[in-house]
Amino acid sequence: MEARRRLALICSHLHPIATSGTSRFHENLKPKCCSGVSVSHGEKGNQGNDCIFCKIIRGESPALKLYEDDTCLCILDTNPLSHGHSLIIPKSHFSSLQATPPLVVGAMCSKIPFISSAVMKATGCDSFNLLVNTGTAAGQVIFHTHIHIIPRKARDCLWASESLRRCPLKLDQETSQLADRIREQLLFSDKSEDSKGHGSSLVAN
């Protein structure tokens, strides 16, 4: 069962929806700007002309569009993990969440309450998972930033991990050192942003 769920996640972006010329449910999106950025080794083939999301944005591949504005669009996943599984995608090409500018991430996230509410009402769900896969080990398949909205119902048994027993955090020296390393990285990133002229509210304790 876990293998099938993994396969569904991996395949969810690989095949665009097949359409007929008369179908009123399949809408080709109007061409929009989808600028390319450099990508690391292993991500080639998913950028620019070969990226399925870029093709959808340019109107070269079909999709069921739910929402669109100047920065992002939302479509139904072509191989959903649940009924109403949707994707929020930026119109410019960024290979991962880390490569996506904060303003774009903010624009995408600002639509989550609005879109998720509509999806839940339409599907009769009262819960949803918000998911971002960043990197191959995390299950990212298409290297164009996207946010999953996955409607949930009680006892749908979608994630095997939900049945796993979680262990309490050990407040020992190793954990303390981990927290210190994370804070150091945050302070380093904060100083880098300050040097670029961006303000910050990060405070070290």
Automatic annotation (TrEMBL):
GO terms for molecular function: adenylylsulfatase activity. InterPro entries: Histidine_triad_CS, Histidine_triad_HIT, HIT-like, HIT-like_sf. GO terms for biological process: purine ribonucleotide metabolic process; sulfur compound metabolic process. Signal peptide: none annotated. A motif (Histidine triad motif) lies at residues 144-148. Transmembrane segments: none annotated. Residues 52-159 form the HIT domain. The active site is at 146 (tele-amp-histidine intermediate). PROSITE patterns: HIT_1, HIT_2. PANTHER family: ADENYLYLSULFATASE HINT3. This is Putative histidine triad nucleotide-binding protein 1. It comes from Davidia involucrata (Dove tree).
